[in-house]
Amino acid sequence: xxxxxxxxxxxxxxxxxxxxxxxxxxxxxxxxxxxxxxxxxxxxxxxxxxxxxxxxxxxxxxxxxxxxxxxxxxxxxxxxxxxxxxxxxxxxxxxxxxxxxxxxxxxxxxxxxxxxxxxxxxxxxxxxxxxxxxxxxxx
Length: 139
Description:
Double Stranded RNA Binding Domain; alpha+beta
């Protein structure tokens, strides 16, 4: 059915069965892709749009230059979204995104601390630049 290894195809079908998604529940259409890929992308409809009819979840995939591969990848993405909606847990992709977000947040905190330290040092430098008081002989 898909140009992937039988193992990957079997895993996809098992996952669909586990989530209760049937091929009949999926509306599939093909549109022209955009972006890199040259003449092949511009002339053929390699982008895949899937709609899961019972839930209304819509997925568009144009990661690969091949329509068949995009059909496979789109189904995986659709299953991730359905799983997230049904089970309320974060999919592997969403967990990865959340991890990156947390890392960036940490970096931001570190950057803020460094900025404040630099400001403090700059203030100390300025305080050290007080005007020299001259002593006049009249005092």
